[in-house]
Structure formats: structure tokens, C-alpha cells
Specification:
This protein starts with a helix and ends in a 9-residue tail after the last strand. It contains two helices and five strands. It has a single domain, classed as HIT family, subunit A. It has a five-stranded antiparallel beta sheet with strand order 1-2-3-5-4, covered by helices on one side. With 113 residues, it is α+β, with helices and mostly antiparallel strands. The protein binds adenosine monophosphate. Adenosine monophosphate (AMP) binds next to loops.
């Protein structure tokens, strides 16, 4: 998608702090971290959000889940972490390219809203 920020990051047109990449997904550090470790895992294929991700092949969906586990291990998040995928206006999604936040490196709040 020509005007998509995350498509440009995946293509290397906008710099990012890459932590992981495979055939289907790309992961990098969030520019405005909300936890000591805050990583975004994005699908290389452009879909707007998790509701639209059902159009992706199963192997692409599985790759994102697998990437989360690998990143958590590489970042030594042995005490745990949280994943979040904001979808649409009510969830305050600000970049319309499906991504999953990985948050950790501290005791997170019990509340999730
Ligand atoms: P969301 O609001 O769930 O769509 O999340 C979008 C995330 O992208 C936010 O946490 C932003 O801080 C992050 N973000 C925006 N621009 C960049 C960028 N250039 N590099 C890394 N993260 C970014």
C-alpha cells in the first residue's frame, strides 16, 4: 500500500529497529514505547487489522504467532508479557496495517483497558 507507514517500514523506506523477520512477518521496536520492551509484529501482507487478517493464508497467520514466541524468548521475557492488537476506532488503532504489540519487561497492570 503506497501510503502505509508500516508497508514503508517493511520495505526499508523508513528506518526501524528490527528485532525479527521471516517470510511473512517483520518485527521492530515501537517508536513510543509503553513498557521497557515494546515490540510491534506486523504482517508483511497489508491487511488493515486483525478483523481483516482472516483473508490471509493460514501459514501467514501461524507465522505471526510463532514470531511472538521467538521474540519473547530472544528478549528473555521469562517473567511474562502481554500481546495487544488494537482494531478500529473504539480500540484507538492509529496505524491501519495489522500489527500485534508485545509489551513486557516490567510488572504490567491488571487492567487491560
Ligand atoms: P496502534 O495505535 O495500535 O495502531 O499502534 C501503532 C503503534 O505504532 C504505536 O504504538 C506507535 O507508537 C507506533 N509507531 C508509529 N510510528 C512508528 C514508527 N515509525 N516506528 C515504530 N513505531 C511506530
Amino acid at each position: 500500500m503506497p501510503d502505509c507507514l508500516f508497508c514503508k517500514i517493511i520495505a526499508g523506506q523508513i528506518p526501524s529497529q528490527k528485532v525479527y523477520e521471516d517470510e511473512f512477518c517483520y518485527a521492530f521496536r515501537d517508536i513510543a514505547p509503553q513498557a521497557p520492551i515494546h515490540i510491534l509484529v506486523v504482517s508483511k501482507a497489508h491487511v488493515a487489522n486483525i478483523a481483516e487478517a482472516s483473508s490471509l493464508p493460514d501459514e501467514a497467520l501461524a507465522a505471526v504467532i510463532r514470531a511472538i514466541g521467538r521474540i519473547a524468548q530472544a528478549e528473555k521475557m521469562d517473567n511474562g508479557f502481554r500481546i495487544v492488537s488494537n482494531c478500529g476506532k473504539d480500540a484507538c488503532q492509529s496505524v491501519n496495517h495489522w500489527h500485534i504489540h508485545i509489551l513486557g519487561g516490567k510488572q504490567l497492570s491488571e487492567r487491560m483497558d
